[in-house]
Specification:
- The complex is a heterodimer.
- By secondary structure, chain A is mainly α.
- Chain A has one domain: MetI-like (MetI-like fold), CATH 1.10.3720.10.
- Helices cover 71% and strands 0% of the residues of chain A.
- In chain A, α5 packs parallel to α10 and α11 packs antiparallel against α12.
- The longest helix of chain A has 34 residues.
- Chain A is globular, with a radius of gyration of 24 Å.
- Chain A starts with 7 loop residues before the first helix and ends in a 5-residue tail after the last helix.
- The relative contact order of chain A is 0.13.
- By secondary structure, chain B is mostly helical.
- Chain B folds into two domains: 65 residues, no CATH class; 214 residues, MetI-like (MetI-like fold, Orthogonal Bundle), CATH 1.10.3720.10.
- In chain B, α3 packs across α12 and α7 runs parallel beside α12.
- The radius of gyration of chain B is 25 Å and the shape is flat.
- The chains are: A mainly alpha, B mainly alpha.
- The interface between A and B is large, with 102 and 88 residues.
């Protein structure tokens, strides 16, 4: 018997595939199975009670779930778009600086090394109604004399969370867009100037198209860990007050670990997984398209 | 003349606006972090003072002393957490790099059917939210009995880091011209030797930065660690931060001190590789 010789690329990819299968794929299959059962963590025998799509139907008819779902999508939309715009603005400003630009770039990376959980605590502290930086500053400046309950009021808490999220991730966009700005060839820009374009026109029709792949890279990278917002929310409000800042992820965590209803939590988990993967695939396809339009494809 | 004057005025205005905008943006970026550092040196009375004390009157190392001495509120075993974090992060980074190098090389140098699909599938596996993954892992680990062990955490972090490491390393290997390795092979090297003697040294800096990225991810991870660790056996620092909270109060000073301890290694490592990191992300993405 001759051993079939595997192609070298398969051998090289094998370790990665095996590890991902063991730690990601198999657990996900298990959770897919358990999402069709009445599994409760405290009662192991319930793992074998098949209840079909009951959990999914239950999730779909649960207003709390839909609120969390909608809020997650809203948070991601607001946060990502703001981050993109702020990052673009910041990158443009930094690229115009001639002296001390290296130092600025270094300072810009500052938020990237903060653990999301640390960001959570940091902003919980900053938005604390009693000793927080924001209220202290507002009161010292005489803008208000009441302690604004940033993390206790539902609307304000969501705002505070979005602030924290934007603070951490704007620099990812800014740095990648800055790298893009440096790689833009100068000829088309000069040609645009000669042809009498205004600054806005040359930005809109020359610079921006060149930047698009970089924006998509940043989006793709961000889409890989959007769920990091879980850490921030978990610490800042833990989904409260009265579920006003409940996101899909905190809802899943609470249902699974606190209420011990693993089957139900896994069903909701699956919905969030599809949301995340859909997001990632979308941006990777956009990235490929932008690349091809610039002639950088394979 | 008038036109030139207005032109000059507009230029100056733009410059002032540019400077102000940049200054504001940079303050927003830097202040929250500096505030944490400052508070780690201030006595608790001053942090809690009402009306606020803006200019610190007294700075001391009390919070650090309490943290390392394991005294004070509950006695948080910070050094053990630090050690756990270090062991788990370093080991998982080394393994993820080896696996990622093999995978990245395969993507950069070989053409095969379904390459694009495979790539997106790998990335998608990274996108699975930590909480959603932690539920089945919690059940599985409980059954196998590797909950609250270093091994269990290392395994998870390797899997978490491999896709991104492959992406970065793939980008770096693409920058090494294929001809270089081919020339070495013509000179009598095997492909294996050509890799270690020619391609690896050229891409080394990039691989190092991929490693640092992997290290930071495991160093900072919370969602999975909070469920899969239970005690001082394997608790990492992000989970340890929660030890400073009790039901109604928060030991802000102690927490700030631990935060500083967490940030310093991350800070040093990031600054070491920032140049390569940006290059890796953009090359990997644009030219991939």
């Amino acid at each position: 018997m001759t051993r079939a010789k595997l192609p070298p690329w398969l051998v090289l990819l094998m370790p990665a595939v095996i590890i991902l299968a063991a730690v990601v794929l198999i657990p996900l299959l298990l959770s897919l199975y358990s999402s069709f059962t009445a599994y409760q963590l405290t009662r192991p025998e319930t793992l074998y009670r098949w209840i079909g799509t009951f959990n999914y139907v239950k999730a779909a008819s649960d207003p709390n779930f839909w609120w969390a779902f909608g809020r997650t999508v809203l948070l991601l939309t607001i946060a990502l778009n703001t981050e993109m715009l702020l990052g673009l603005g910041l990158a443009l400003m930094v690229s115009k600086v001639t002296r001390g630009q290296r130092a600025l770039r270094t300072a810009m990376m500052f938020p990237m090394m903060f653990s999301p959980i640390l960001v959570g605590f940091q902003f919980k502290f900053i938005f604390n109604d009693n000793v927080g930086l924001v209220n202290n500053a507002l009161q010292s400046l005489g803008l208000t004399d009441v302690a604004i309950p940033w993390l206790v009021d539902g609307q304000l808490a969501l705002f505070a969370i979005i602030c924290a999220e934007i603070w951490t991730s704007t620099s990812v966009f800014a740095i990648l867009i800055l790298a893009g700005l440096f790689s833009i060839p100068q000829d088309p820009l000069e040609a645009a100037k000669v042809d009498g374009c205004t600054a806005w026109q040359s930005f809109r029709f020359v610079t921006l198209p060149f930047l698009m792949p970089f924006i998509y890279i940043a989006m793709a990278i961000r889409s890989l860990d959007v769920a990091r917002a879980y850490d921030i929310v978990q610490i800042m409000t833990n989904g409260g007050p009265a579920r006003r800042t409940e996101l899909l992820w905190t809802l899943i965590g609470r249902t699974g670990y606190v209420d011990a209803r693993m089957g139900y939590a896994n069903a909701m988990g699956y919905i969030s997984i599809f949301l995340a993967i859909g997001f990632t695939v979308y941006f990777f396809r956009k990235l490929t398209a932008a690349r091809v339009s610039l002639g950088m494809g394979d | 003349m008038a036109q030139a004057a207005t032109h000059r005025f507009r230029r100056r205005l733009l410059k002032a606006l540019h400077f102000t905008g940049l200054f504001l943006a940079m303050s927003v970026i830097c202040l929250p972090g500096l505030w944490i550092v400052l508070n780690s040196f201030r006595p608790t009375v001053e942090i809690m003072a009402k009306p606020p004390v803006w200019i610190p009157t007294e700075l001391n190392l009390d919070h650090y002393r309490a943290m390392f001495g394991g005294i004070g509120q509950g006695g948080v075993p910070v050094l053990t957490y630090f050690q756990n974090s270090l062991i788990i992060s370093v080991t998982s980074t080394v393994i993820a790099l080896l696996v990622g190098m093999a995978g990245g090389y395969a993507f950069a140098r070989y053409r095969f059917k379904g390459k694009a699909t495979m790539f997106v599938a790998l990335m998608a596996s990274r996108a699975v939210p930590g909480v959603a993954l932690s539920l089945p892992l919690f059940i599985l680990y409980g059954r196998i009995g590797i909950i609250d062990t270093h091994f269990g955490m290392i395994l998870v972090y390797v899997a978490m880091n491999v896709p991104f490491t492959i992406w970065l390393i793939d980008g770096f290997f693409r920058q090494v011209p294929k001809e270089l390795a081919e020339a070495a092979e013509i000179d009598g090297c095997t492909r294996w030797q050509a890799f270690w003697r020619v391609e690896f040294p050229v891409a080394r800096a990039g691989i190092a930065s991929a490693g640092i990225f992997a290290f930071l991810t495991s160093w900072n991870e919370y969602a999975l660690a909070s469920q899969l660790t239970r005690s001082v056996n394997s608790k990492t620092m992000p989970v340890g931060l929660l030890d400073f909270t009790s039901q109604f109060t928060l030991n802000w000073g102690g927490m700030c001190a631990l935060a500083v301890l967490m940030i310093i290694p991350a800070l040093v490592l990031t600054f070491l590789v920032q140049k390569h990191l940006i290059a890796g992300l953009t090359f990997g993405g644009v030219k991939g």
